[in-house]
Design a protein that fits this description.
The chain has about 600 residues and is α+β, with helices and mostly antiparallel strands. Helices cover about 50% and strands about 20% of the residues. It contains 25 helices and 19 strands. The strands form 5 sheets. It has a 6-stranded mixed beta sheet with strand order 16-15-14-19-17-18, with helices on both faces. A 4-stranded antiparallel beta sheet has the order 4-5-3-6, with helices on both faces. A 4-stranded parallel beta sheet has the order 8-7-12-13, sandwiched between helices.
């Protein structure tokens, strides 16, 4: 680097320094995260962006090509409001820088001012007193010194005084920040990044990218000192990456605007990144699928994040996967954490229970010769959620779908063994069940946590209850059993012709099994009644649930019948996950129970 010019190597190394500063201050940024939602993830989101930029970008022959590489990585790795705004800012820089071997201060200053305008344009309703304001003030401060004969370091040092002042002022520009007595987290994150860049221009030393990745993995607990009690109008922070050519971002904004707030749409070549807070993420993705190929989806439950930060009810966290069917209101009341599994269909990945409904998935796949498939979570995703829970709880119980049906248990167990420490105990339970039976076990564990039982006693109780739990699924439509190969095409056709009505279950090891076969709906129901009567001769049913695949009417009929038979109402009736819906088929209804010890 010279005193007056910036090379591609300078820009690359300056970004590394900026990224290091952001990741170093991740937990601080999480702590002061108040606006727009106090969900404590701004630092995590910005750190994730920086990690993607560093790991997936390369130094180009020119400053422009280096920035283009940063921009391509940023649009893929951006998360949250501030992360996506930051990605658009980087895109603006890449667009406004000339494609020369090096640039001078004046060119950098002008590009920075223009980059802030790109960020503003991406947002449906820009709010002052946020990262946007600080980006704008930084650009204007740089422009104010254009034409000076001072060095780049001297000019940036002078402009950074304005930047620091702009960050401080955010505390007084938004009522939420005034009340909490903190500055805007996104704005502070941007300032950390610029400070890191300046550090490189001052000293010229380089940073190993691996040191940034290590920082990102480190866990540092923090105390949250301010509860703003901000009402969450739109619950789910919904994001995705769409690949399409020639899509009009204004048209997408218009289509998505009625579905929520905090809408941001950014584009880079043939990639479009969308961020919106919505109560209907499945409708958001439905709109976007009509505009291109949805390559990435993310849905964060901001209510759960806020409750975990500020209104945590226990020191023991409870985590299950989305195959466990439990009503959402119970999950909310007991603060159960859910690892939502992925569903793959026709080159698109969906998030179970969040980005697609069972009915939508069945409608999409009914004319297809192949069924949607499930994808177990990768170790990085599990590591992230365990790391998150470890910063808010003292210990964790994980309850997974049967390991005979999915690799989820083994993957979580492997990650947990690496991450468990004396300060954070992790127990992983294979429920050997799925759907309603898994849900009943999870619900009982949540009750025991609420009642203050110690973790060992909870784990011992639930582990014993696994053998006393059962699920019986009345399959109404054989199409999906045929597509999945559980019934041969020939047998399936015969079965459909004669009205075959199987009841399927899981055996003691958690493997799929056939319980009984009937030839009419009434006979199938009678088999279920007969099973329960036989069980009740020697046992007491402690609790039971009814789950269904888009068939509430029949589920209510089953409820009436078994309320009389068992002598009490089911613990709950709820719809299954999309994953269960694919396996059981349209119209299926399942009865699950736990026997009393």
């Amino acid at each position: 680097m010279t005193d007056t010019n910036i090379t591609s190597g300078d820009m690359y190394n300056a970004f590394l320094h900026g990224a290091y500063e952001v990741v170093s201050n991740r937990q601080f940024l999480n702590k002061i995260n108040v606006f727009p939602i106090q969900d404590g993830d701004t630092g995590t989101n910005l750190s994730s962006l920086m990690e993607t930029i560093i790991n997936e970008s390369t130094k180009g022959e020119t400053v422009k090509k280096t920035l283009e590489s940063f921009s391509d990585a940023a649009i893929r790795g951006a998360r949250g409001n501030s992360g996506i705004i930051f990605a658009q800012y980087i895109y603006g820089l890449s667009m406004e820088i000339s494609d020369n071997e090096f640039i001078n201060y004046d060119q950098y200053a002008l590009a920075s001012k223009k980059a802030a305008e790109y960020a503003y344009d991406a947002i449906e309703q820009p709010v002052e007193g946020t990262i946007l304001t600080v980006m704008k003030d930084w650009g204007e401060a740089l422009i104010g010194q254009v034409g000076s004969s001072n060095t780049i370091t001297e000019l940036m040092s002078a402009a950074i005084v304005v930047l620091n002042d702009a960050v401080v002022k955010t505390q007084f520009q938004l009522k939420e920040l005034r009340k909490a007595k903190v500055v805007d987290a996104g704005a502070n994150g941007f300032a950390f990044f610029i400070h890191g860049m300046l550090e490189y221009f001052k000293k010229g030393n380089t940073i190993d990218p691996n040191s940034i990745n290590k920082l990102q993995r480190d866990s540092i607990g923090v105390d949250i000192e301010h509860d703003m009690n901000i009402e969450i109008t739109y619950r789910y922070c919904t994001e995705c990456l769409v690949r399409a050519d020639g899509v009009d971002t204004k048209s997408i904004k218009k289509s998505l605007s009625p579905l929520g707030d905090s809408l941001i749409v950014i584009a880079n070549k043939n990639q479009i990144r969308i961020h919106i807070h919505s109560n209907e993420p499945e409708r958001v993705f439905e709109v976007l699928r009509q505009n291109g190929n949805v390559e990435y989806q993310k849905v964060d439950d901001m209510k759960k994040q806020q409750d975990t930060m500020l209104r945590r009810k226990s020191d023991i966290a409870l985590l299950t996967d989305s195959i466990a069917d439990v009503p959402q209101e119970f999950i909310d009341a007991k603060q159960i954490h859910v690892l939502n599994l992925n569903i793959l269909f026709e080159n698109t990945s969906f998030i179970d229970k969040l980005s697609i409904t069972p009915k939508q998935l069945l409608d999409y796949s009914k004319d297809s010769k192949v069924l949607p498939t499930t994808s177990q979570p990768d170790e990085k995703s599990i590591e992230n959620i365990l790391l998150y829970l470890s910063t808010h709880y003292k210990s964790l119980i994980v309850m997974t779908v049967s390991k005979q049906l999915s690799g989820t248990y083994s993957t979580i167990k492997r990650v947990a063994n690496r991450m468990e420490s004396g300060d954070f105990k992790i127990d992983v339970i294979d429920t050997k069940q799925n759907s309603g039976a898994q849900g009943l076990l999870v619900a009982k564990a949540a009750d025991l946590i609420s009642e203050g039982y110690p973790q060992k006693e909870i784990v011992d109780t639930i582990t014993a209850d696994v053998a006393r739990s059962k699920i019986l699924v009345r399959v109404k439509n054989l199409d999906n059993m045929i597509k999945s190969g559980r019934l041969s095409t020939t047998t399936g056709k015969i079965g459909k012709k004669i009205g075959l009505k199987p009841i399927v279950t899981l055996d003691e090891e958690g493997k799929g099994a056939l319980d009984s076969i009937s030839f009419t709906t009434k006979a199938s129901l009678n088999k279920l009644v007969k099973h329960v009567k036989k069980i009740m001769k020697n046992h007491i049913i402690e609790s039971y649930s009814i789950v269904h695949v888009d068939n509430l009417e029949e589920a209510i009929e089953v409820e009436r019948l078994f309320t009389d038979l068992i002598g009490k109402k089911p613990r709950y009736i709820t719809e299954t996950s999309s994953i269960i819906a694919v396996g059981a088929g349209a119209g299926a209804v399942a009865l699950s129970y736990i026997l009393k010890k």
